[in-house]
Amino acid sequence: MSSASSSTANNKTGRNQWRDQPILEAIPDLPMRLQKYINEGIRQKDIPEHVRKDCNGQIVSLSSIKKFMKRFNIKTVKHSGLSDIEKGVAILRVVEQDPLGRYGCRLVKEKLQLKGTHVSRDFTMTFLKAENPDVVARRHPSTRKQHKHGIYSSGPNEEWCLDGHEKILLSMGIAIYGIIDKFSRMELALYAVPDARNSDVPVAVYLRAVKQQGGIPLSTTSDKGSELGKLISLVQELRKTYQPYITEADVPSHSAVKSPQNITRERGWRPIWEKELANLLHFYRTGQFEAGYLPNDDFHIALSRWLWASVVQEKLNELRVENQVHTIRNQPKILLPTDARRIDLYTDPLFECL
Predict the structure, then answer these.
(1) 89/100 Cα distance (integer angstroms)
(2) Residue range 304-332, pLDDT digits in tens
(3) I want to staple 74 with a disulfide (CB 3.0 to 4.6 A). Which of 69, 142, 195, 254 is the partner?
């Protein structure tokens, strides 16, 4: 009886996807991947799908994921391994980079999360209220302007919105040029440039984004700046060459609108300026006095721009990572998808929008 049973067994070795050892043999770096997923803001319920996509179709159930997280002591908000004092110190280190008080509780939490320090939003808010109640009160939703809704996009890469930002230009001699995907609201390119009105800048930034993303968008949108002539000719020629079945009459390859109508790009600038660039400008201005900067000295001007351009670009690179893993809060009244990370909306919109 036993011999017949063993000869007809479907799985003689007893090794299957539900046992710990075969999973770790197939994905030896699974614990490290789990911590990375948590640090990047991926919800536990979505981790099995990310494992499947990142590990050649390997299937790991959610229950197994939870067991491994417990077994390997993966740091989360509930199991951070930190005392309240250590959490407070970590929050203060982030707030030190925000002398103007522009960081909200959620942004502080996400900055810590990317570094592997997990603190709940409620704890962060309570701590910041005790540390600086006036700043927290200024950021309450009732004190901020509510925007109208109505922006629509059918999917990622349907429309890229681009523009320059010059609020730090006069003081630092550095401008920013950026491209944002309308559907996911994910920053595709952010570059520190000497002059955002130079006609070569939009072309260079656009081509870098195309190379990085592996293709061109269906259309682009910008304001009506005179520096965009070269870019408009380029995107029209690329569309004609690589998407000849889509005519300009059906979908224009480029739309030039007034700045207030380039809403996705303009809204994207606001948090970048208010929460990051304004602080950089503050450090720049306070540092000028401490360093003995001479505003009429050509050498000081050139050296300052060279040094601070690198600082600004480094901050922009950090901002792009933070922007990608940021979860857009649930907003049922708007037409664009919400309640998901921007990078997931951009790379896998069908899964995230189910």
Answers:
(1) 19
(2) 999 999 999 999 999 999 999 999 988 88
(3) 69
Q: How many residues does the chain have?
A: 354
Please give the structure tokens belonging to residue 188: 């595709």
Contacts of 340 (CB under 8 A, 6+ apart): 327, 328, 352, 353
pLDDT digits (tens, 9 = 90+) for 279-296: 999 999 888 888 888 888
Q: In the prediction, which pLDDT does 185 show?
A: 94
d(CA 265, CA 122): 31
d(CA 125, CA 46): 27
Render 147-206 in DSSP notation, one character per residue.
PP-----SSTTSEEEEEEE-TTHHHHS-EEEEEEETTT--EEEEEEES-TT-THHHHHHH
Residue 327 is classified by DSSP as: E
User: Which parts of the chain have pLDDT scores under 50?
Assistant: 1-7, 13-14, 16-18, 144-147, 149
CA distances to 84, 287, 301, 303, 345 from 298, rounded to whole Å, are 50, 18, 5, 9, 47
Q: What is the pLDDT of residue 18?
A: 46
Q: Is 210 helix (H, G, I), strand (E, B) or coil?
A: helix
CA–CA gap between residue 292 and residue 288 (Å, rounded): 6
Give one DSSP letter per residue of 248-298, joined into a string.
TTTS-SEEE--GGG-HHHHHHHHHHIIIIIHHHHHHHHHHHHHHT--TT-H
For residues 41 and 118, give the distance between their C-alpha atoms in angstroms, rounded to a whole number: 10
pTM: 0.73
DSSP bridge partners of 99: none
Domain segments of the chain as ranges: 84-143, 159-352
Nearest to 49 by CA among 353, 348, 326: 348
Residues in Cβ contact with 256 at an 8 Å cutoff, skipping those fewer than 6 apart: 221, 222, 223, 224, 228, 232
Token pair, residue 234, equals 């380029």
pLDDT of residue 169: 72
Q: How crowded is residue 175: how many other Cβ atoms within 10 Å of its Cβ?
A: 22
Is domain 159-352 given the CATH code 3.30.700 in the classification?
A: no
